[in-house]
């Protein structure tokens, strides 16, 4: 047999499990332990690779290393680093009266602080003019996305319920047929056993009559 035939037979394997009909576990609790051992054994032999239809894991902020590092920090429960307040200060030269390089560094820092405050003022003005509308639009988009996801979730739940309902109806119908066939099989086995017992009794009666006939012939 070729490998393709073997794979075809493995792919077309038939599982006769009817969970909506079978109640063997309720009738025999020892079967539950046996089933759990078989499941654990089967899971231990499964490859680590996921099914091809399983989507790959989502990588958050793949194009933003700063946010990715922040997510890793949150996931590892690391404390938030202390805010660096030195750049918001205007320190003068450490020596007195101070060298030219120190005064130039202090002046450069002061200009940077002034530019920072100017940018903050510009950002505050832009936020006051356009921020509220931008947030309204953003919230509207989020609400629309949330509604679409809720709708998709409800549809998926309905599809799942419908599949389970069809499976239950099918298994219940097939289970009734199996019960009828099992009852008929039991009746046939009982009839066969009765016939076998009758045959044994007839064979004994025939043997008894044969002995009696031999005795009469001898007389």
TrEMBL record:
<feature type="compositionally biased region" description="Polar residues">
    <location>
        <begin position="1"/>
        <end position="12"/>
    </location>
</feature>
<dbReference type="GO" id="GO:0000974">
    <property type="term" value="C:Prp19 complex"/>
</dbReference>
<dbReference type="GO" id="GO:0071013">
    <property type="term" value="C:catalytic step 2 spliceosome"/>
</dbReference>
<protein>
    <recommendedName>
        <fullName>Pre-mRNA-splicing factor SPF27</fullName>
    </recommendedName>
</protein>
<keyword id="KW-0508">mRNA splicing</keyword>
<keyword id="KW-0747">Spliceosome</keyword>
<dbReference type="Pfam" id="PF05700">
    <property type="entry name" value="BCAS2"/>
</dbReference>
<dbReference type="GO" id="GO:0008380">
    <property type="term" value="P:RNA splicing"/>
</dbReference>
<dbReference type="InterPro" id="IPR008409">
    <property type="entry name" value="SPF27"/>
</dbReference>
<feature type="region of interest" description="Disordered">
    <location>
        <begin position="1"/>
        <end position="29"/>
    </location>
</feature>
<comment type="similarity">
    <text>Belongs to the SPF27 family.</text>
</comment>
<dbReference type="GO" id="GO:0006397">
    <property type="term" value="P:mRNA processing"/>
</dbReference>
<dbReference type="GO" id="GO:0071011">
    <property type="term" value="C:precatalytic spliceosome"/>
</dbReference>
<keyword id="KW-0507">mRNA processing</keyword>
<keyword id="KW-0539">Nucleus</keyword>
<feature type="coiled-coil region">
    <location>
        <begin position="100"/>
        <end position="173"/>
    </location>
</feature>
<keyword id="KW-0175">Coiled coil</keyword>
């Amino acid at each position: 047999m070729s490998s393709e035939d073997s794979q075809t037979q493995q792919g077309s394997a038939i599982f006769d499990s009817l969970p909506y009909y079978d109640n063997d576990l309720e009738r025999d609790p020892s079967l539950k332990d046996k089933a759990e051992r078989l499941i654990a054994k089967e899971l231990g032999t499964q490859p680590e690779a996921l099914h091809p239809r399983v989507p790959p894991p989502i990588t958050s902020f793949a194009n933003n290393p700063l946010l990715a590092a922040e997510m890793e920090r949150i996931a590892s429960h690391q404390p938030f680093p202390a805010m660096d307040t030195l750049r918001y200060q205007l320190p003068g030269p450490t020596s007195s009266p101070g060298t030219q390089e120190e005064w130039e560094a202090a002046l450069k820092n002061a200009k940077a602080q002034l530019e920072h405050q100017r940018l903050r003022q510009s950002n505050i003005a832009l936020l006051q003019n356009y921020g509220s509308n931008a947030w309204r639009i953003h919230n509207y988009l989020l609400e629309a996305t949330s509604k679409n996801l809720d709708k998709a979730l409800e549809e998926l739940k309905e599809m799942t319920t419908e599949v389970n309902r069809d499976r239950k109806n099918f298994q219940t119908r097939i289970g009734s047929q199996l019960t009828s066939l099992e009852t008929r099989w039991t009746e046939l086995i009982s009839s066969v056993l009765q016939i076998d017992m009758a045959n044994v009794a007839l064979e004994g009666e025939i043997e008894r009559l044969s002995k009696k006939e031999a005795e009469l012939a001898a007389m």
